[in-house]
Amino acid sequence: MTPPSASLPPHRKVRVDLGTRAYDVLIGRGLLDNVEKWAKQAGIKGPVAIITDNTVAGLYAQRVEYQLKVAGLQPFIEPVAAGEPSKSMTNVSSLLSKLAEKKMPRSGTVIGLGGGVIGDLAGYVAASYLRGVNFVQIPTTLLAMVDSSVGGKTGVNLPEGKNLVGAFYQPKLVVADFDTLKSLIPDNAIISDGGLRQFPAGMAEVIKYGAIRDKALFDRVATGVNPGDSDLDVIIETCVAIKARIVENDEFETKGERALLNFGHTIGHAIEKVTGYNTYLHGEAISLGMRAAAWLSVWHAGLPESDARKMETALAENHLPLALKPEIDRTSILAALGNDKKVAADGRNRWILLKSLGEATSGSELPPDLVEKAVNLLFT
Ligand SMILES: NC(=O)c1ccc[n+]([C@@H]2O[C@H](COP(=O)([O-])OP(=O)(O)OC[C@H]3O[C@@H](n4cnc5c(N)ncnc54)[C@H](O)[C@@H]3O)[C@@H](O)[C@H]2O)c1
Ligand SMILES: [Zn+2]
Q: pTM for this one?
């Protein structure tokens, strides 16, 4: 275990080494009760905008605000509605105006307190205001802890499509207090079959990290992970470290390596688009995409069939979907695949496939009939 800091509760620390933009990701329990300590360590001073959503605001924002006040800073909470529609230019505009009204200086700080929606929105606001103020991520969903809070991709959606506006903007610090995962509740707005969906949705990305880079991680999580598991910190740390190493090698996604993180995302994004982003959580769509991509890997990249079955078991053990709802239109998914954001300049998809569990390859082009076969499989 990473040696605990003298002043914070025992925690793990992953350094994202990006030269002048390097930062730490702190992972542990009780970190939100020590805000003033890590804020001091990170050199935060003066005004701090806590951008959050109204669900997370009610749970954690006042705690963070109070501690920052006690530490002599000038925090203020800016809540937006919970949910994906909040990743909008309308919110960017109103939040920028709020910062201007508060006369936030360049030395000020924006904290994104919430899931990936808030991290992406707050990060883009932080990148834009005065051409960039300090940014701190406090992720409160598993997906945000293992994925969206690390790596510096920020941005919002346009009516024309998801994540069409954005900037690479690295945070100064990421604080992942996984005590916050205890309050993840069923999302009744989009739930049809009961149960807790947010944690499993984050597990889809965890399974992805294992599949593309770390067989031991894959084997550990294949039997299922629950929010109370004692090794959750190790699992999160392992994922963050994998993402950190990939981002260090290919910060701006120009060398191909960062694209490996899109395993399962080509078909996953098509499913999200066709279902209007309101049927499946992102991780659930990625679960379906990874099942399809695992079989494409068998047919095209030499992945043993037994490994594709292991992928299916891992997804099922983590309460993730394996099959599409029958009412979903198969043809629309195939059409949407032609429009994927990751389509290369020549108009063809570059697929991320697995050679084995723990090793991915990028850049494969696939014959359309094989892609169709994989989509058909998702209806079985
Ligand atoms: N920037 C990146 O690299 C990157 C990577 C992956 C995903 N993303 C983005 O992340 C977003 C999805 O993130 P998400 O899955 O975290 O969704 P989210 O931010 O919408 O959070 C999910 C729901 O959980 C609630 N919530 C959050 N934390 C909670 C807590 N501790 N207790 C109770 N409720 C809580 C939220 O209010 C929300 O209703 C998408 O917009 C996606 O595009 C970005
Ligand atoms: Zn994803």
A: 0.93
Q: Which ligand is nearest to the CA of 185?
A: 1
- Gap from CA of 202 to ligand 1 centroid (Å): 9
Q: Is 336 helix (H, G, I), strand (E, B) or coil?
A: helix
Q: Which sequence positions are flagged as catalytic?
A: 131, 153, 205, 243, 253, 258, 262, 265, 269, 282
What is the chain's Cα-based Rg?
20
Strand partners, 329: none
> How many Å apart are CA 333 and CA 65, to the nearest integer?
44
**Residue 43: per-residue pLDDT:** 87
Report CA 20 to chain centroid distance, whole Å: 23
Of the ranges 184-198, 264-278, 302-316, 344-358, the best mean pLDDT one: 302-316
Pocket flag, ligand 1, residue 143 (CB < 6 Å): yes
**DSSP state string for 301-348:** H---HHHHHHHHHHHHHTT---S--TTS-HHHHHHHHTT-TT--TTS-
- Count of CB atoms within 10 A of residue 161's CB? 12
* Residues facing residue 158 across a β-bridge: 161
**Contact between 112 and 101 (Cβ < 8 Å):** no
User: Could you tell me which residue, 348 or 124, shows the higher pLDDT?
Assistant: 124
pLDDT in tens, 77-136: 999 999 999 999 999 999 999 999 999 999 999 999 999 999 999 999 999 999 999 999
